[in-house]
Amino acid sequence: MRLLIVDVNHEHPNTMHRNFYKALSEVMEVEYFGPGFTDEYVLSQGLKAFLEAKQHYDVIMVTWAFVLDCIDFDNPRAIYHFHRYDISKYKVGMAIRYNYMILRELLEYKESKKAIVYYHDVVNMPDEWYGKIRSILKNDFYLLTAASEFISKRNNENKKIFGLPMTNNMIKLDEQFHHKIISVPVQAATADELEYRILEEREYDWIIPGSLETGSYPKRKKVYDRISKAGYTVWDEAIDREMAYKKTRRARKNFCNYYSEVDRFINTYLLDVPNVYINNKVKVEELGIFHENYRDGLRKARIAYADGGLGKSIVRKYMEIPAAGTVLMCDNIIGIDKLGFKDRINAVFVNEQNVVRKTQKLFSDKGYIQEIANAGRKLIIDKHMVRHRAQAVKSAFKSILAESYKGSHWENGDFYIDEC
Q1: Dihedral of the CA atoms 240, 243, 249, 255 (nearest 10)?
Q2: Is the CB of residue 55 less than 8 Å from the CB of residue 112?
Q3: Running DSSP on this structure, what letter comes out for residue 409?
Q4: More confident site: 212 or 191
Q5: Sequence-ordered alpha helix ranges (H) in 149-217
Q6: pTM of this prediction?
Q7: CA nearest 321: which of 361, 376, 240?
Q8: Which residues contact 216 (CB under 8 A, 6 or more apart)?
Q9: In DSSP terms, which residues pair with 329 in a beta bridge?
Q10: Is the distance from CB of 33 to CB of 50 less than 8 angstroms?
Q11: Do the Cβ atoms of 185 and 314 come closer than 8 Å?
Q12: pLDDT in tens, 231-287
């Protein structure tokens, strides 16, 4: 199967996205098109000319961030994505022009199946994004994302995640276009995250990874305080829990200042200026040190905590923690059972009130706690490595190409396709 990925080659701060691309390359013949992937002469000729010069692609896949940069470039949130791009020679206007030209041709192209990958948080999809995705799905596209089986329905909650209000828009899309949605969450583990050191030989009882700020993940600090107060040893040697957040805030602040200076980007597409956001992004080298520090903590701790935050949705820590052979103590969020997680079998479901009591119970039986850790790691190895996500996507594409795809869902950690 031949897959063309249309995107901008950039250093995304989340390695999960790059790992997903690599995994797709292991199960399909993958090529790329877009700024940073393609030389300027080929870009200037356009996507249509590129496709005519190549043999047929079965599927063309584009990311939502790429689409958003094209169709909403008067919005500072959209332009802000460019601060992550690792293409220093491209000017803001040049990158937007190429993206816009590529998307226009892609919307008109009918010779291949087409899909959008939605990496953003599905629980806070803005209304304007919902409307645009809805119109694109009507235009022969499929949507690859974590579908409504992994989303808690909102009841007029006045809460925000990363500045955006939570919505039911992804659930609405699934209700209207279930036959066009590929329910594959990209959260998965990689081989280098696996660890086999037994719990008895680890130095710390606990680790609560991630930011402890009370913004989008307010439960973490509560669990941290209760576990620490109970006298358990907690790994707390993080280089900087807030590194990515602080970098993001600085970049956003600098962007907003720059945005004001050029009269709200009224003529963004004509600006003859360099990409000023590049200096503010989180570098791959920084991320490498940060991630190794984080993994070191997981390897040294017996128990680790993960929660779905205000969005009550799956995050990658649900995969990374058991992959490290560490017991996953976590929120019982919607869809976790569909991914194969079972309380007191391969994970332990907790809340802030019972986390200490359940920790005491685990440590009272060394054999039992090790069994849970082993079962959790086995679940990840058997069903939640990046290769499994790539294989799920390939199977969905095969069904789409056969004109039999009617949707997809998860049961006990396995991906199923609904076919006619």
Answers
A1: 140
A2: no
A3: E
A4: 191
A5: 169-177
A6: 0.88
A7: 376
A8: 161, 162, 309, 310, 311
A9: 305, 348
A10: yes
A11: yes
A12: 999 999 987 676 555 544 444 444 444 433 333 333 443 333 333 334 444 556 666
193 CB burial (10 A radius; 0-12, 13-18, 19+): buried
Q: Where are the alpha helices (DSSP H) in 28-83?
A: 40-45, 47-53, 64-71, 76-79
What is the rounded distance in angstroms from the CA atom of residue 349 to the CA atom of residue 328?
8
Give the phi and the psi of residue 118 in degrees, each rounded to 5: -105, 100
Residues paired with residue 169 on neighbouring β-strands, in sequence order? none
pLDDT in tens, 61-113: 998 878 876 665 444 444 445 444 444 455 555 666 788 889 999 999 999 99
Give all strands of the β-sheet with 301-306 in edge-to-edge order.
204-207, 301-306, 327-330, 348-349
Q: How far apart are CA 404 and CA 420, in angstroms?
A: 5
Q: Which of 168, 179, 101 is CA-nearest to residue 138?
A: 179
Rounded distance between C-alpha atoms, residue 337 and residue 418, angstroms? 19
Which residue type sits at 5? I
- Token digits of residue 15: 């390695």
